[in-house]
Amino acid sequence: MGSFKEIxxxxxxxxxxxxxxxxxxxxxxxxxxxxQPRNGVTRNISVLESQNVxxxxxxxxxxxxxRVFLIGTASHEFTLISELNPEDLIEVPEGNSMKKDFSxxxxxxxxGKEKKQNEGEDR
Length: 123
Fold this sequence. Notes:
By secondary structure, this protein is α+β, with helices and mostly antiparallel strands. The chain has helices spanning 2-34, 102-122, and strands at residues 45-54, 57-64, 67-74, 77-84. Strands 1-2-3-4 form a four-stranded antiparallel beta sheet, with no helix packed on it.
């Protein structure tokens, strides 16, 4: 009789965890949709590039209403460093993007781990 209660408790805990994860997924999906541009309308402000230069410090290239600015950020402030000429910016083709999605990074890490294990077994 006691083992049935333990099993029921574990099953209940698993169901509760699944419900919490599903709820978090749908809430984040709902909130994410609210902060995206609607109907293909582009935003007037975008961060073109950022580079960390220290703890809580970064340089940002920001485009606002067809003007481009170099902005320095610290933990509690933004400082306009300079207005840039948009023609001087180097455009990186879409295919050469340095950003990778999580699944691609995970896949390459797992493949690299498998290769190392296979090399160790061959020796």
